[in-house]
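Sharing a chain and its predicted structure for anyone who wants a worked example. Both blocks are below, sequence first, tokens second.
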Amino acid sequence: MALDGILLHKIIPEIRNSLPARMQKIWQISSTEILFQTHGSQGKQLLLISCHSVYNRMLFTNRSYPTPNEPGNFIMVLRKYLEGGFIESIEQAELDRWCCMSIRKRNDLGDIERFSLYIELMGKYANVILVNGENKIIDALKRIPPFENSRRTIHPGALFQPTESQNKKDPFKETVVDTSMSMTKQFSGFSPFLSREVEFRMANGQTFASIMQEIESSKSLYIANSNNEAVFHCIELTHLGECRCYPLFEGFDILYYHKEEKDRIRQISGDIYRFVNRQLKHQKTKLPRLQEEYDNALECDKYRIYGELLYAYNITDTKGETQITLEDFEGQQVRIPLDPKLDGKGNARKHYTRYGKLKKGQAYLQEQIQICENEISYFEGLLSQLDMADFDTASEIRTELIRLGYIAEKKNPRRKKKEIPLHIKEVEVDGIKISFGRNNLQNDALTWHIAKKNDTWLHAKDYHGSHVVIHDPRPSEHVMRIAANIAAYYSAGRHSTSVPIMYCPIKNLKKIPGAKPGMVQLGSYRMIYIDPDEDQLSFLGISL
């Protein structure tokens, strides 16, 4: 669900309260998101602008966002023209879904320059456009050349043309409703969703003026569920029944932070996804070939028999022949392929040589098949971890791949290498601490370096997933079931039911020599079955 003009009308004053504000730093945290660090009357704040086709929005956020090491071209332009400048004002175009920031900055000569940053939050057309004092475009997040849109070109050097006004009534000033027309056609800023809510309220006796007064005074965001999709607005959603209420900006963060997080991780750590997928495809292509070669090697005895028959019948003159039929020792006719360039003894030696190679190759091929299967299992596990990873977890997966030699490390001689601590999650239940890892390095560190030998260890059986440790030798059933829920949810079986969870003391585990991180060998263990429950984990404060 996209933002509408009425909601933007509620956001603008909240941002205006912090102005004037100095632009200290600018980052592009994904292909559609820009983050500004500002310092104004409310202190330091992070202003997020998202031009996602569905999740577009603008707000002050308290969440932490990963920033890429190499900024894109548009961010370099914004830094050149805007960093160190002051946001003087922000104005919305009537009740449309775009606004303009006015920014002033002193150039290298000390002269004041003025810029406009247009923020258009119009679904798939959402954009951020930097315009100079002469109303010419310096650059834009999404460029639109003339051959794509001749009426409105968004390209460096082009004259900026604002989005045309829709010439609709202002619902905060005009309260007369024409019941023969939809509200989206009558009033500026109305989305179809808000129209349904207003029409429902009016059908139940509330006046249009009182509804708009409620919208004007609201500083909250109400979130409800409709057809398994989150919907929201700044007034209570009475036509959907039960809804939750949050402060305006906090509500947007709750709605969209984790939805966009996966896209953000894929864009910033996209090379990891591509590498893991490429390796997985390579190993899956390689495995059938190895198995076919192994099946052929199992038939090596026929070449030994060919050689024995050629020697037994003392076959000598076979040059120019491609095959010969002889009777074997059981009276069966055997057709033996021949090399026309060799005589009988030469063909016999050739068959014996092939037999020897295939016989020795069986052990080698078995080893290669096992290695290939292990690689497939390993990379499938990494994909599963990446699907559930936050940015820190994805970065640790990159570190793991570097340590194992899969990826070359980019070395910077000016920067000293420092060991970054692993981000192992913890939660406390009934006074007992439960820890769990979300990648192989975290699992390895938790199981072998943090947990004590009498702590309880859990893992989903036959699934790639998290190592979970209850820091207690005899946890209660309640604690055990919560830990089992964590192990089930953070595994490849998270969408299954009745997931089998193995558990045992840490002392029952053995480290496999030469195995990859996170691999363990179990001694005796017990089982518990659990249905993954996302609501229970959210209640415990575990970010999903």
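Comments welcome. The radius of gyration is 34 Å.
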